[in-house]
Amino acid sequence: MAEEAKKKAQTAAGQPVLIRKANTAAAAGAASTSAATTSAISACISAICQPSAEDADPRVCPICFEMTGDVTPVKHLDPPVGDASSHRMCRACRQAWGQSICPFCKEVTTAAELVGFIQGFIRTVSSSTHDANASAAVLETIQLFEMEHEGQPSVIRRVYKMIAEDAELGAQIDAALKAQHEWPRDMAGVFWRLDCAAEAGELKGLEPTARMRLQSVVAAIWRPFERGAREPNELDPHYHGALYTQALVAWLCAWRSGMATDGLVAVVQRCGRNLVEWKRTTKMHKDSCTGRVRERLHTEYLQLSHEPIWGSRDADPVWQAFYK
Ligand SMILES: [Zn+2]
Ligand SMILES: [Zn+2]
Predict the structure, then answer these.
(1) For site-directed labelling of 199, which of 55, 92, 145, 219 has its Cα 20 to 30 A away?
(2) Model confidence pLDDT, tens digit, residues 135-152
(3) For residue 115, how far is its CA from the centre of ligand 1 (angstroms)?
(4) CA 199, CA 50: separation in Å to the nearest integer?
(5) If you measure from the C-alpha of residue 65 to the centroid of ligand 1, how many angstroms do you get, rounded to a whole number?
């Protein structure tokens, strides 16, 4: 799934994912067939009584009632309450269902999709050192993941907790912090998203070390952008523009998923004020600096943020500084 999402993200690079999705939703005609099959299975399951464990032959698929020889139990991310031995499907029904939730109890399955997403995420992280474009693709992967699970904030919360607690990713972040690598900055949006979800108590039971690691990586991301006048910040304008876009994307993801946004609103505001202050004090040529920042901003995201983040377009300092 992660690979496919990445491919999708790369082929349409440069165009904001969240906007693209809205524009192309209508064109997704191919999905309607499988949607029909899925709802047929749902209807079938609600129509039949759930077979009780005693009288059901475990070799028979409870959906199509065939003895196909390939009936296997549905795996669950968290084991369901009570007897789940009847939650099983044959291969054909599994393919027709095509979703990462159990059709009987709607619990998230431990199917390849979720695990693959996390593994792909970590692989991308480890292969994207010092490559800002590859790092940005991680953020797009996260965006696509959130869109695929729109209306399922509980799935997003659990997957984000798994990512935050992943040992391999944790070791990679620790090493990056120690060596002051730059890649965490290029995927700031992902870390802000996780950190603010943790801060809002959405990643229930998150390990304290994972929590502290998120705080450290976020602090390291802010540092080069908030050095103050004595140590002027002369990073390439692209980084300043890209950082603001990352903040906006993190906020948009949480907003669309119906999750806590207060922390991310504060992140966008802090990032926006830093950006405007940097433009005011930089020794770079103002016009070329504006142009290069704008190459990394998306007006569609800015427009979505005027009211919820700043109150209005006129009150949006980023818009005022870079588009007026
Ligand atoms: Zn079946
Ligand atoms: Zn189930």
Answers:
(1) 145
(2) 677 778 788 888 877 777
(3) 24
(4) 40
(5) 6
